[in-house]
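Title: Comparing notes on inverse folding

I've been comparing how different people in this forum approach sequence design from structure. To keep things fair, I'm posting one structure and asking everyone to reply with a full sequence. Here's the target:
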């Protein structure tokens, strides 16, 4: 049986749209959820699914044409239908159907060089960057150009323009030839985070300053404060102390509380102090932003951290709660490690990484004796276009000093 696939209603006030991409050719066997055409209107880009399983027998549209609600897009030979019956149906429909201008359908081999398959978001980005998708070899199904293909092409062109080497092309490797394997897809959050980190690492000249802080006295004070707040169901960790000290430093050295504008020629100095906190969740890394850290007490910060951490793991954070940060703190103290190099989270210009504190004998210049002290290692990665090494060393030294001044935290 031959079925006409018509353009459904696209939404309130949208009577039609332009064909951005026909993603099938005559002879394709498709499933109901497969996209058959990508449309673009003034309000949105959208992918139209087939809605049924079957084989494409005729296409009535082509790229660049305007289509309206109710217009026939393609005809599909429904899966499992009788061939003789469908031929009769097609002849009958042809007899009574108004004449429709039939586009010149190209074979699949020619279509690969003359057309490009890509999602609306990839097409939109390519238009903004004035890149012809036809020059990119798509690695997706049916030669579809993916976001990674577009990014790879951009990187190779930038490398060529600067006289550098093109990045190594990704190779499809059959790892099973060497033994048993398991394929585990990355979560959406992992993919988005990975793309952001890769862009940050490639576009920001990173430098990392390493330092240590003696938190022996601060740890004793934190334990006393924790004992007082146990009945209030408030968990006091080291993180609020780190945030308070960081807020003080961002106020004293506001170059660390800045961003480069879109031209890359001006610094935007922020009068607010909003600190992002990296939270490890089952679905990937989330960075909720705690606002106005400099105006909040340790207990207020502790309560807010408990709330956002719980909602981050339950996937209940809103997009606004993960935007607007001016500095980020990533703490691995509860897991382990000595030092690590965190990647700057643009448009911020610096990020702090905190590792696990350890007891060790340290020489006391006052008593001229060795004594056990709790030492916290930490790292400061920064954008070298904005911050130089002297400023970074001054920041970490002053930050370590604040953590040793218990009086600074007493409220």
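Reply #1:
Here's my take.
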């Amino acid at each position: 049986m031959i079925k006409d696939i018509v353009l459904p209603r696209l939404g309130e006030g949208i009577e039609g749209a332009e064909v951005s991409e026909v993603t099938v050719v005559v002879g394709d066997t498709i499933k109901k959820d497969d996209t058959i055409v990508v449309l673009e209107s003034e309000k949105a880009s959208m992918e139209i699914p087939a809605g049924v399983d079957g084989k494409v027998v005729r296409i009535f549209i082509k790229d660049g044409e305007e289509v309206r609600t109710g217009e026939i897009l393609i005809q599909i030979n429904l899966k499992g239908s009788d061939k003789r019956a469908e031929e009769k149906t097609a002849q009958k429909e042809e007899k009574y159907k108004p004449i429709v201008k039939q586009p010149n359908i190209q074979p699949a081999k020619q279509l690969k060089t003359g057309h490009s398959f890509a999602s609306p978001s990839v097409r939109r980005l390519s238009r903004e960057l004035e890149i012809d998708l036809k020059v990119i070899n798509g690695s997706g199904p049916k030669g579809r150009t993916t976001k990674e293909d577009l990014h790879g092409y951009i990187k190779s062109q930038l490398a060529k323009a600067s006289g550098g080497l093109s990045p190594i092309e990704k190779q499809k490797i059959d790892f099973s030839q060497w033994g048993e394997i398991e394929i585990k897809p990355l979560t959406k959050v992992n993919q988005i985070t990975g793309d952001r980190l890769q862009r940050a690492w490639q576009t920001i000249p990173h430098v990392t300053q390493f330092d240590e802080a003696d938190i022996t006295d601060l740890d004793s004070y934190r334990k006393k404060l924790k004992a007082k707040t146990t009945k209030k169901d408030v968990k006091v960790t080291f993180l609020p102390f780190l945030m308070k000290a960081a807020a003080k430093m961002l106020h004293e050295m506001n170059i660390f509380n800045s961003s480069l504008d879109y031209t890359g020629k001006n610094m935007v100095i922020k009068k607010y102090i909003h600190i992002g906190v990296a939270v490890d969740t089952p679905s990937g890394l989330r960075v909720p932003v705690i606002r106005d850290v400099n105006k909040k007490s340790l207990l207020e910060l502790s309560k807010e951290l408990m709330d956002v951490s719980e909602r981050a793991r339950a996937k209940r954070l809103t997009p606004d709660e993960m935007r607007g940060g001016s500095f980020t703190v990533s703490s691995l103290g509860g897991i382990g490690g000595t030092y690590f190099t965190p990647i700057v989270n643009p448009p911020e210009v610096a990020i702090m990484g905190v590792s696990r504190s350890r007891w060790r004998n340290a020489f006391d210049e006052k008593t001229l004796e060795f004594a056990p002290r709790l030492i916290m290692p930490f790292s400061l990665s920064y954008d070298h276009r904005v911050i130089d090494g002297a400023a970074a060393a001054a920041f970490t030294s002053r930050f370590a000093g604040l953590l040793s001044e218990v009086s600074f935290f007493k409220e």
